[in-house]
Amino acid sequence: MKSTDFPLPTLIVTGMHRSGTSAIARLINDMGFHIGADLLPASKNNLHGHFEEAAFTHFHDRLIERFFPEKAPFCEWLPLADAPTPYSQQEREAAAALWEAHRASGATAWKDPRTSLFLDLWLEIVPEAKIVVCLRHPYQVHLSLLRRGEPALHVDYSAGIVGWFIYNLRILRALAAVPSDRVTVIDIDTAFRTPDRLALDLAGFLGVSLPSGLASIRPEEFHFEENLRTAFDAFASLFPEIESLYRSLQRFGGSASFPELEASRSVLSRLIEFEEANGLRKTAEKMLIRSLAEDRNRSFNLFRKSVEAGREKDRMIEDLIWYNGKLKETLRDAYAKGLSALPPAPAAGNSAPPATT
Question: Is the Cβ–Cβ distance between 222 and 172 less than 8 Å?
């Protein structure tokens, strides 16, 4: 029996960035779900591909720009403050049209971490959808953003932690009224260690059978951060509101609280205290320095390319001036030749009127 023997449910895959959403989307794609046709290309941080339909990404970016003006520097997808999202009728119609076009292409699912911020909207548009939430510890997400060289962290070191909180808080709020049998939360640090079990559980949730030879998740490609096991208790004591949110999502289906970020102590000061107290600061600093160096190299390469583009523009202008001069010479010569081919004009005073009959 194939995974497509039965009608596939509508499926949304979401979760904070760097939380395994791409790997899970690749897995469900291999199970027979069509994710989309215009997918974002692979990158050095996602060698197998992002499995994100570009139209959804662009739509969510426009919503982020409208509703979340306070964002991390150099990062269009990372809000630093939660905000109300009173969708207009036009935005609801645009979301519905986007889903209809996606479904008309044969797609049955989509994946985009940005969906987390607008899951309430999508549950209005596709209330029958099943939802896969990818969950990863906030500090692991922070390290993954550092490892990727996210420029926002060079200016605001705690942006990843704050963004994690906002993304996951909005997920939890949106799911408050959704039946638990339509939602599965995958704690990827545990699930990715046993990919066969993960695939089996996911297939059961989706109501499909597993294709033979399925091997989409490779544990060796994932950073488990084994040295963090004993540090997570200290993280929970310094960030009780973030720990509460993390645990509420882990045990989704029970009672959930919707905490707020503590304002008395900054996230940045608590993050640095956590790293220093648990011997993580030096490693984090090395990762940050490496990230800064990569960012500097990217900036230098962009500057070099802009200089080369400027030189090329100057060469093109010089060529244009030369061709313009040659054109003028050609036109002048052609004009002169045209004049020389005309009969000589009669001398002044010697001209006679044309003969008449």
Answer: no
